[in-house]
Amino acid sequence: MMSKVLFIVNDAPYGNERAYNALRLAGVMAAKENEQVRLFLMADAVGCAKAGQKVPEGYYNVQLMLGKVLRKGEVALCGTCMDARALKDDEVIEGARRSTLAQLADWTAEADKVLVF
């Protein structure tokens, strides 16, 4: 039986480790069989999906971590949050997409578990 897990991430990709820990857990869960993982990025977390990130050697790269989730899961970004941060659709990594609060409401209703970071 498929378990549906929704991750809601609010914090910026760098500066603290909340987004990092959410993406670590989401990546591990997405790799498991019988797990459907969805990730919704809100507020400053939309920066996690910015394409072309260059971080110092030895430092984690949330863009690469999102790629692990995207292999078997879905990643959506709050469109209003993107607009507030001047993040355009063509600036996000391939596979991640602009979304809405209505989509988040649907995903929340469909999820067996909702984890908020």
From TrEMBL:
Classification via Pfam families: DsrE
InterPro entries: DsrEFH-like (IPR027396), Sulphur_relay_DsrE/F-like (IPR003787)
The protein's name: DsrE family protein
Gene source species: Keguizhuia sedimenti
